[in-house]
# Entry
Amino acid sequence: QVQLVQSGSELKKPGASVKVSCKASGYTFTNYAMNWVRQAPGQGLEWMGWINTNTGNPTYAQGFTGRFVFSLDTSVSTAYLQISSLKAEDTAVYYCARVYDSSGYSDHWGQGTLLTVSS
Amino acid sequence: AIRMTQSPSSFSASTGDRVTITCRASQGLSSYLAWFQQKPGKAPKLLIYAASTLQSGVPSRFSGSGSGTDFTLTISCLQSEDFATYYCQQYYSYPYTFGQGTKLEIK
# Structure
């Protein structure tokens, strides 16, 4: 069965960096792109962008350029989200979510990774 | 960016009720719309894609309709496990925006 398992919660200080992992299993990793979605505390869902797992080419939504980087390690079927120069407003749950059949929508989601940025 | 507006933002209903949630897009999407259910502390779950196609394993009491700019999610007979927050998302053009969510609570 398809599974996306994300790394655990993180507590970081402002200015630090973090790298969230999303390990896929149960399907051929490079056949399906990966979306990243943010959910701030008590708020709705926000699409951050996606990465083509075949080419490694990322696409970022406005507001997620510069400090946010999507990457892959296809040898271990894992996608990564790195955020640098962390700010308090980056505090949120971050989800990876498989893109079904190049369509754009996500059919399977990771469990989420809570990032807390606080001094 | 395409703006997605859901209505209502929240409402109360009872088990057995028929409920409808509306999602309106600021421009036409054809049928590139998905619906998700999210329970507290959990990841979203795909219910409907292509505006009206039920995802495998989702109960048939869920249905979706619409095209262009106006879409609806209907739950025909509410069950206790359906009390959650529902989101629509367009995947017609970047960025793939979500609606603000509709919180369905028990009356």
User: Anything to note?
Assistant: Chain B touches chain A at residues 1, 32, 34, 36, 38, 42-46, 49, 55, 87, 89, 91-92, 94-101 (CB under 8 Å).
